[in-house]
Structure formats: C-alpha cells, structure tokens
Amino acid sequence: MAAKHVAYAVVPGDDPVVVLAEDEAVLTRAIAVEIVARSSAADLGSYADGIREALVEGRWVDAVERWMSATGNRIDAYPGERVWDEESLDDDVTALELRMRRLFAD
User: Could you say which DSSP state residue 83 is in?
Assistant: First the structure.
C-alpha cells in the first residue's frame, strides 16, 4: 500500500491555528476559508478589498499573501508530510525503522 500524506499549515502564536488537508491544492483553499476569510475587514485595513477580490476570483495564494501582509502573521505550510498508521508502522516495521535512524548508527 502506498504511503499516505497530508498537507498542513500552522499559524504560530499563543493560540496556534492548524489546518489539515489531503494535498497542497486543498490546503490553500482551506487556509482561505479557515483563516483568511474569518478576519474582519477592519483588522485588514486597506488590504481588505484586495483580499476579498482574490478570494472571489479563486486566487488563493494571493489572498493568503495579502492576509499575511495585512496582519503581520505568517503561515507555515507543509505540503506533503507522511501520515503514519498501524499498517505502515506495525511492530516489525517500527523495529526496523528505529535501527536505521541516526541514534542507532553510532
């Protein structure tokens, strides 16, 4: 079975926000919905109209970049991280994987 992957993004801070998606394309849309569009126009100042326009036109990356400029927040995105599950990391595979890691190389 092929390894499963997930894309995710984190807005760091005192109360970090995490968004999970099945791939990078869905992740950018999820960030637009879950993070960008939840902002108030007042908090976005002169960027609000440009962000709205980018969202309506489906220019997700533009909307996210403008949101980061407007808020001073950053979004750390990770487009293809492996998802471990019982099938891909049973006891035998775990034992083998551990022995191949750096800690056991010395």
Answer: E
